[in-house]
Amino acid sequence: MTFDLTTKQFRLLLDMAYIGNWVLNSMRGEDRITDYDEVESKLFFECVKNGMGSLAEFRDGTVQPSRAFAEGGIHEAIMDYEDAVFFDILAEELARRDMQAEGLSEDDSGELEVRMREYVSEFEQNGMEHISVDMG
């Protein structure tokens, strides 16, 4: 299979592949899904062949994203996503907990949405400042 991309489109594809592989494999340790590593390696090998060699390097016998690529801002995008997802999940879990404690059905999507918005608003205003955990 072949397809044509501009240099900018190819660079965006590299970002997407890296982010996707990061999401799928970063927490897996030795149990990585190697098919994704192989596709990522093929894409970054194209950098070497097409004058974008600073984005790729040979490590551990394969072509991988270079340290310059990995340190060039892509992790800030990943961290922004993780922060947003963290607070959304936390808001939903806390809203469900509150509803359950009050004997309300978690299936009441309107009530759940209202409570989640309240938590999200709190997190937007104060971050984690007002969150506490009772450990005992």
Helix content: 55-70%
From the spread of the alpha carbons, the general shape counts as elongated
Order of helices and strands: HHEEHH
- Quickly give the structural class: mainly alpha
Strand portion: 5-15%
Mean pLDDT: 94
Quickly count the domains.
Answer: 2
The count of β-strands is 2
Unreliable residue stretches: none
Radius of gyration (CA) equals: 21 Å
State the end-to-end distance.
59 Å
Largest sheet: 2 strands, antiparallel
Total helical segments? 4
- As laid out across the biggest beta sheet, the strand order is 1-2
Commentary on this structure:
With 136 residues, the chain is mostly helical. The protein has four helices and two strands. It has a two-stranded antiparallel sheet. The mean pLDDT is 94.
